[in-house]
Every structure is written in C-alpha cells, then in structure tokens.
Amino acid sequence: MSVIVSVAADLLVAVLLVAVIVTSTRLSRRMARLKADEAAMRSTIGELLAATDSAERAIAALRATVAESDRTLSERLGAAAHHSSRLAEQVSAGESVISRVVQIAAMSSRLRAEEAPHVPAPVPVPAAPVPAAVAPEPRDGLRATMEAARQLAARAARRLEERAA
C-alpha cells in the first residue's frame, strides 16, 4: 500500500506540476500581450502629446492672427470714420455753394426782369409752332444752373470717394 500511496502522490504531484506549467504559460502569454499593449499605449500617448503641442501652437498663432485682424480693423474703422466726417463736411460745404448759386441765379433773373424796359406786349401772330427745346422758359436758366451745380457736387463727391479708396 505504501507503493500505491507513493505512486498516487507522484501522480498527484505530476498533475499539479502540469497544471502549474499550463497556468504559467497562460500567464506568460497574458504578460506578453500586456507589455505589447503597454508599448502601443506609450506610442499613442506620445502621439497625443505631440498633437496637443501642435494644437497649442496653432491656437497661439490663431490668437495672434485675431489680435492683428482686430487691430487692422480698428485702424480701418477709424480711418473710415475720419473720411466719413470729412465727406460730410465737404457735402455740407457743397450744399452751401449750391444754395448760394441758386440765390445768385434768382437775384440775376430778378435784376434782368427789373432792368428790362416795359414794352407793350406784342400782338401774337400765328406762326409755326416752336418746339419746346428751342423756346426755353424763363425758369430753364435756373434749372440748368441747378443741374450744373448738382453735377459739380456729384463729381466732387466721386473724387472724394476715389481719394478715400
């Protein structure tokens, strides 16, 4: 019986030894996979750090660009406001000149009317009709003067806009 117990004990030790070898092999494989995963994880972390640094540099560059754009826009808005106020002053001065021209034209037509001798009205003679463009009305001179003044003001405004641009 002692031989049977000894053989059974040896068999039990052999089975346990095989179980330990199998378990050790499994653990070794798992540890190898974990180490491979750790290397991949370290590589991924390194790439993430590089991407983060790149993103931070890009954000800093964007902030600098925004600051430069803001400064440029502020300068342009200031220049536009300055040109706008100058243009408003010049338009006001142009309107003043136009009103003076209108006053001068009105005074001139009144003076001509006062200086003209009073001649009895001519007797109308039937004649060929005169086209409207040939026979100007007394106020056409004033209208022509006003139109010329408007055109002058428009040219001045265009020149100011061209200089401002």
Describe the fold and architecture.
It is a single chain. The protein has 165 residues and is mostly helical. The protein is built from 2 helices and no strands. It has helices at 2-115, 140-164. α1 (2-115) runs antiparallel to α2 (140-164). Mean pLDDT is 83; it is low at 127-136.
SSE diagram, text form:
Blueprint: H1 2-115, H2 140-164
Q: What number is the mean pLDDT?
A: 83
Radius of gyration of CA atoms, rounded to a whole number: 52 Å
* Distance linking N and C termini: 117 Å
Poorly predicted segments: 127-136
- SSE order: HH
Strand content: under 5%
Percent range of helical residues: over 70%
Oligomer: single chain
Helical run tally = 2
- Count the strands? 0
Summarize the structure.
The chain is mostly helical and 165 residues long. It has helices spanning 2-115, 140-164.
Features:
165 residues, mainly alpha, 2 helices, rod-shaped
